Amino acid sequence: MQITKKRQKEIETMEYRMLNNGIKMPMAGIGTFLLTPDEAEASVLAALKDGYRLIDTANAYVNEKAVGRAMKKSGLVREEIFLETKLWPSFYEQPDAVEETLARLDTEYIDLLLIHQPAGNYVAGYRQMEEAYKAGKVRAIGLSNFDETQIREILNICEVKPAVLQTEVHPYFQEKELKEFLDNEGIVIQAWYPLGHGDKTLIEEPLFTRLAEKYGKSNAQIILRWHIQADNVVIPGSKNPEHIRDNFDLFDFSLTEEEMTEIAALDKKVRYYTSTPELLKKYAEMVPPVNQQK
């Protein structure tokens, strides 16, 4: 894979979080939520060409095979890519769930495997991930969409401590109390909806417009840079090659402490996704058509 000198420099200046088991995780990656297999393959291939090294997918996205193809087509050695995926609730009690996930991704190991939802028998799912971790099939494990009470439940029974929590975080929903708890436990937070699910009100905040003009960046790039300096790993999704490129162009500037404080003041504790018992029950019953993906 041929990359430009600019992209090579960005790869070299990529910032990382060290996970609690000593594994390094890139601070910025690409998400594949809501992407069709064709879109996911094209987006991941473009992202890897642009210098990305973190890819996020999930059983439920039904595009794991496409992600695996893109990784192979990139020409990069497997060790250069940080691959994460998530187990879906209907697979938590299936003893071959991890093996089937590995087969779809066409890889011998997964860098980070998460429990996707606190639905169904998620303790069984976590136990399965622990066994995969001990067997060397997974380099780190974690949780997605868990709240503090549910995380504490896992911490009380786990043999392998979760390394990452993937959850909704953006300037309007900064999760300051949860982050303090996670910091104390040595768990890294990873933000989905890092740009607020495309909410123009958020993206067009006058503060971001002012900072974008100052740094010669877009409003979205200012938000993503805020995340990185706030120690949030980001995985914005896109199928637009220009947006994919811009979403990684984050490592040649830094916000000041004063600017970070200004952004912190935007916190409204307002989220775009709200979990309910009814929704979790629905998740537990839903079976993604993973065997039908292209």
Notes on the structure:
The two termini are 24 Å apart. It contains 13 helices and 10 strands. It has 294 residues and is an alpha/beta fold. Helix 3 (64-74) packs across helix 4 (97-105). It has an 8-stranded parallel β-sheet, with helices on one face. It has a two-stranded antiparallel ribbon with strand order 1-2.
Task: Spell out the key features of this protein.
single chain, 294 residues, alpha/beta, eight-stranded parallel beta sheet, two-stranded antiparallel sheet, 13 helices, 42% helix, globular
Structural class: alpha/beta
Sheet-strand content, in percent, reads 5-15%
By DSSP, the count of extended strands is 10
How far the N terminus sits from the C terminus, by CA atoms, comes to 24 Å
Order of helices and strands: HEEEHEHEHEHEHEHEHHHEHHH
Radius of gyration over alpha carbons?
Answer: 18 Å
Biggest pleated-sheet summary: 8 strands, parallel
List the helices and strands and how they pair.
Layout: H1 5-13, E1 16-18, E2 24-26, E3 30-31, H2 37-49, E4 54-56, H3 64-74, E5 82-87, H4 97-105, E6 112-115, H5 122-134, E7 141-144, H6 148-157, E8 164-168, H7 176-185, E9 188-192, H8 200-203, H9 206-215, H10 219-229, E10 233-234, H11 241-246, H12 257-264, H13 277-285
Parallel strand pairs: 3-4, 4-5, 5-6, 6-7, 7-8, 8-9, 9-10
Antiparallel strand pairs: 1-2
Helix pairs in contact: 2-3, 3-4, 9-10
